[in-house]
Amino acid sequence: MPVLTFTRRRTLLTMFLLCGISVALMVWEVKIPQVTVRSVFLFFLYPFQWAWSTSVRVVGEAAQRIVAVGEAQKSLSEAETEIRELQTKLLLLSQLEKENEDLRTILDIKKRVTYESLYTRIINKSLDVTSSRILIDRGIRDGVRRDSALIGYTKEHGFYVVGKVVEVNVFTSVVELLYSENFSMGGMLSNGALGVVSGQGGWHQYCVMSYVPNEALVEVGDVVSTTSESDIFPPGFGIGVVVGITTSLRQEFFKRLYVKPFFHVMQAQSLFVLKWTPQEEGGNRE
Question: Looking at the DSSP assignment, which residues form a beta bridge with residue 240?
Answer without folding.
Answer: 224, 261
